[in-house]
Structure formats: C-alpha cells, structure tokens
Amino acid sequence: MSHNHSHHVFGSSFKLFFVLIFNLIITVVEFLGGLFSNSLALLSDSFHNFTDTVAIALTFLGIKVSQKDKDKKKTYGYKRAQIIIAFVNSLVLILVCLYLLYEGIYKIISPTEVKSSLMLIIAIIGFVANLLSVLLLREESSSSLNIRSSYLHLFSDTLSSVGVIIGALVMKFFNIYFVDGLVTIMISLYIIYETFSIFKKSVDIFMQGSSLDYSKIRDRIILINGVKDIHHMHSWMLDENTLHFEAHIKLDDLKLSDVHKIYQEIEEILENEFSVSHITIQPEFIGCTDNICGE
Fold this sequence. Notes:
Blueprint: H1 3-37, H2 40-66, H3 81-109, H4 116-137, H5 145-174, H6 179-206, H7 214-221, E1 227-239, E2 242-251, H8 256-274, E3 278-284
C-alpha cells in the first residue's frame, strides 16, 4: 500500500469516526426534541439519523476490514467488505425512505398540531450538524462506493432537516400542518432515486457482472499479429475499482518468447483501453469448438 493511499485511508477513517460521534449526538437531540415538542416529524428524523449512525459505523468497520491483508483462505483479501456494507447501507436507506413515504402520507391524511417553535430550533440544529458532516465527507464520497452510501445517508438527513424546518415554519405562521408530510414524501422519493444506483452497482458486483464490451475487445485483440481468435471471455469486479478479466486466445505456432510479447501487448490494451486491473490468459494452439464469448 502506498504512502498516499495509506494517508487517504487514515483521513477517511478519522472523518468517518468524527461524523459517527456527531451523528449519534444529533440522533439523541432530535429524539428528545420530538418527544417534548410532540413532533412526529422530528421523531421520524431522529429514527432516520439513528439508521444513518449505524450505517456510518458499518462503513467505518468496512474500511478497517478491507485493509486486512489476504491470507490462505481469503486469497483476494477483504476488499469486498466495503461492497457488502454499501449494499446494506443502500438497502436500509431505501427501506427507511419507504417508511417515511408511509409516514408522509399519514401526516397528510391526519395532520397533528405540534410545538412548532421548539421543533424549529431542533430542526435548525440538526440541519447545521448534518450539513457539516456532508461537507466533511464530500471529497471522499467520489472515491469509494461504501463512503458514498454513507454520504448519501447524511445528505438525505440534511434534506430531511430542511423539510422539517419548512414544515415547522409553515405550522408556526400559517397552521398548515399537512405540508410537513408533503415535503417528507418529496425528500424520500429523491433519496430513493439517488440511492438506487449504489444498490444496483453493489448487486452487480456480487453477481460478478461488469460493463466490458466483449465485441470491442475481440475486434481489438485479433488485430495483434499472431492472434487468430479470442474467446471464453469472462470478467468480474472484485470491488468497485478492481476489474478482473480472463480469456482463451488461439495463436499461431510460436516460440514461447513471442507468446510472451503477445501477452504483454494484450495486457497493455486491456489495462489502458478497457481499465482492466487483473488479467489471466490461456493460450490455445489447436482448434476450439466453442467460440462463444462469455460462456
């Protein structure tokens, strides 16, 4: 592991730990505020924050586990720990948003009066705290699917706080109580839309999928002098940044030194043009009866 990578991982872990403690405090404050103000919106938001606290804790754990060295039983190492956490986080967030959709509809149908002044104060505190957490993880969110899932959790909390603030203001000055439920529904639908891409990508990785275009790879490889064909192509992602590729290649009857040069050329093409991280090639010098890519 390089010094820069180690420094980046340490920085991400430190920020996540800080955000974890911060979010736990927000959860307690909103829960107590919801009880004293009789605000179901604040109680729902505190529950949302609690699930996010758990998600951040799992993200922190995933980073720590993924740093473990490979061993005899885990020859690929523990990199997929972060994908497991990203899957769990995104799934939980979608489920929480579905619950908030239900609560939002219920609030529209049966609005209740709350102590809007206290609700407004707590919501503003929650908004500021969540916004600080979002800004803290913003840079890291683009480099890790796992951290991005936690970032979206916090981003959803920030939007939820905005909804609670708007609801509190409307209730305080206009006594229109169904607005809180309407804002909750809009926020939940937006977060589901944003989170589904992480959920889908983590499932694709588990199902050993990839986005490689085998036809383009074949067209490119057979241009190499000495290569007759490439088939039995398979690819899968170990994590979001590590793409594995394997294939059989039919070659002319060449010297081993010439085959090695072809290997090197294929590897350069796959690494530079298709972003493949790990390549396994099996040579064939006799006819192959099955030329179906990816079978």
